[in-house]
Amino acid sequence: MLSRLPAFTPLANLPTPIQPLLKWQEKTAGVNWWIKRDDLTANAASGNKIRKLEYVAHAALARDADVLITCGGLQSNHARTTALVAAQLGLKSHLVLRGEMPAQWNGNFLLDKIAGATISFITPEEYAAANWQIMHTVAESYAAKGIKAIVIPEGASDALGTFGYAKAVEEIIQQAQAMGVSFDAVFCATGSGGTQAGLILGKALYGWNATVYGINICDDEAYFQQKIRTILDGVRADYLPEFAAARQDIRLLDGHIGDGYAKTRPEELATLIAFARLEGIILDPVYSGKALHGLMKEFNKGRFAGLANILFLHTGGLFGLFPFEAQFQTVC
Predict the structure, then answer these.
(1) Domain coordinates of the chain in residue numbers?
(2) Three-state DSSP class for 212?
(3) Partner residues linked to 97 by β-bridges
(4) Could you point out which of 203, 282, 331, 332 has its C-alpha 20 to 30 Å from the C-alpha of 171?
(5) In terms of Cα–Cα distance, which of 258, 276, 263 is closest to 314?
(6) Which residues are catalytic?
(7) Residues 158-183: tens digit of each pLDDT
């Protein structure tokens, strides 16, 4: 199967480091904690999204695209990364964002504007019911002007984009071998399903023994079971007919979405702050910070007793911190 993986355009600064969390692991006697710093994949385009866009943008270039269209929340990391990748590749970007024009431009939205993205706003109801159709309507409006626009799904989380994290597994295996470490499990935030699906795919492609867990930061386990299954079914249908993932490969730590997507609570911020003050690494409140909080709650219940080496995947999102300024002022 490895000889038939899709082509990609290198965009990220790889490999990203794996670092031991020596102070954090003092809180969990007997377990070694490590972090994969995918917040360092690139400068302003930092985070997990760029690994997926290496494949998706390559396909768009092969189709002579002029514009990349994608969607997300007002502070979407993926939308921001797409806007910057489009600029890097000499393309235009059009973002369909959930919400209204903010009174203050900050965080990812500010970077969208700096990158020159065209932005359309839709209501949460429109987004939930028809974001895919709305993006294709935007693409049709470009086509009427003779402009080739390519639609990229939320998070670039489709069969093609998920190869970004399949390839990341090969990188992790090589790093672990060089360090003399064998990871028992890898944990990541799951928000659109593509990163977790890619890790599952990479586990199969490269014979990795670590168990893959996602901590869903929105929606519920049933939703992501179906979403990840759909992505992996697409891999089999479009690229690797012999690949098959078992249902038990899709493992989620459910029940930790708190107040919902892109919302945070004092206890979640407290975990993020404690981690920063122990390790000097900043997580974000929407993805990795919420995921670590959920993971620690499960860990403290004894769910992962017996694991020796845990790898936590930092998926980025630094710019998403800034819209939470008021909440941080109450807890710092």
Answers:
(1) 2-47+158-331, 49-155
(2) strand
(3) 72, 121
(4) 282
(5) 276
(6) 76
(7) 999 999 999 999 999 999 999 999 99
